[in-house]
């Protein structure tokens, strides 16, 4: 099995170079700096790498997907910048967030600029047909609408404790899964795949995107503070309706009431959080989430059977496994 | 000469219908309502109408430009929503602005959603070729980058009183002219025009866009409060570097110092504003701006000579004249 982080690293230098080139023409200077800042801060480059690897796995060239992959990273960055404004998050990738450095106005504009640039970059892709560029762009635009809808749903969930599993799954698909699915689908389009393979690669991306988000919920309770870089149970402290909280409220029987009380309380003690974790463990909600993520990953790997064997296909298998192996 | 407002009105019902249809699928409800709000509040629909009229004027069908025109209106609306957040403007189109009704977070998202939808809509245009859709989209994406750059430049001018005419002209082209130019260029593309005509229609849009903005600067000093709906000289009061202020500072000789003092002062009396207007009138700055707008309009009409005579071409001529005839 390949080391996934190392493989992602192999793709990221081309992607970063491409992004820096495309953003270097932005004026005035402060807008350019704010736009390029998070790319320079370093990210896993998971989405663009998935786009390039998928292009190879369907028999195409990674170069043909480079611009689309870079554009998808810009869309991801745009959504981080605007989300940080909305959530008033001070830090991102270990650095002060964009609106903390340049102020909210420039941060809004930097996000908008990245968004515009992303579409400009895809449509100007060379080496692929107008039809391919068109399809890739439609795929990314669809994901962008879903990201906004997912974020709006997520904000709408803040004061609600009756969110259903279906609502939650739709929200995380839109907020997180849609762009990952767009990355693998657009990679397949730019790699020249058939419609059947394109659809399969969208499904693969959707499934690992779901697993990724569910694993985040799981790690919040099952990891340790040092590895995670934040206190265990912080989602419970925030009263966030994760898949674990939703399942717990539905399956903890008599203890649901206590669990709900802790979720609603803004000033829980460490004992309260530990009690909530105990309830969620006992009723099987944590295991339920873990199994859901595992099922998604297994389904994602099954979907990959449509592809001929290759080292790129193996990387896609490894990335699916990696989603559940990461501890932070 | 046709009544321009009446002509624009003839196009607007199709455009509004198209926009409402495309936005009706957005969820959750509050995001949909915030996204559609300003379209329902009513606008001149100048940009989308220009797109459709240009498609006709180059010999094409307005239906082929309908989706692109609607998308351009969405981009315009997106920029209004985000600008109102940045400028903290409470009112828009006679109603409370989007962030005043739904809060800043939803307003940021509504803008982002309109932006995403716009690209989705253009790329799905039917009846035109992939190549046309591609070119139209690249045109709009380019304008979006320019809008962000123009807004960032404009914000950067706020504390500067040494803005040059060239800097100012570039800023207003990007902030206002670029999307109008994109509307006429994309209309020509969707109407099936030759590259020469497409380029000419971009130039036409650029020129009337400049005239439009300069006329705004002119009306701030040359209109009357009742017609304009705001006090005369409000740009001077805000210390805004308009083309008139820039020209005045360069050409008012000994009185430049007094003019600069008034521009820098946040608490001017009505007498101060009147004195500034007197200085700007005497040194010819107001006339200079008026002539600049007039020249742009005349050049725009000359550019139209590339088109065969038609009623749509006549409307484009009338719109160019209308830019200078409006009083508010």
Would you spell out the secondary-structure blueprint of this structure?
The structure is a homodimer of 328-residue chains.
Chain A: H1 4-23, H2 29-41, H3 46-57, H4 62-87, E1 91-92, E2 95-96, H5 98-102, H6 104-123, H7 130-157, H8 165-190, H9 195-222, H10 225-228, H11 234-237, H12 243-251, H13 256-264, H14 270-282, H15 285-303, H16 311-325
Task: Give a written overview of the molecule.
The structure is a homodimer of 328-residue chains. With 328 residues, the first copy, chain A, is an all-alpha fold. The first copy, chain A, has a single domain, classed as Orthogonal Bundle (Farnesyl Diphosphate Synthase), CATH 1.10.600. Chain A contains 16 helices and two strands. The first copy, chain A, has helices at residues 4-23, 29-41, 46-57, 62-87, 98-102, 104-123, 130-157, 165-190, 195-222, 225-228, 234-237, 243-251, 256-264, 270-282, 285-303, 311-325; strands at residues 91-92, 95-96. Chain A has a two-stranded antiparallel ribbon. In chain A, a hairpin with a 2-residue loop joins strand 1 (91-92) and strand 2. In chain A, helix 3 crosses helix 8. Chain A is globular and about 60 Å long. The mean pLDDT of chain A is 94. At the A-B interface, helix 4, helix 6 and helix 7 of A face helix 4, helix 6 and helix 7 of B.
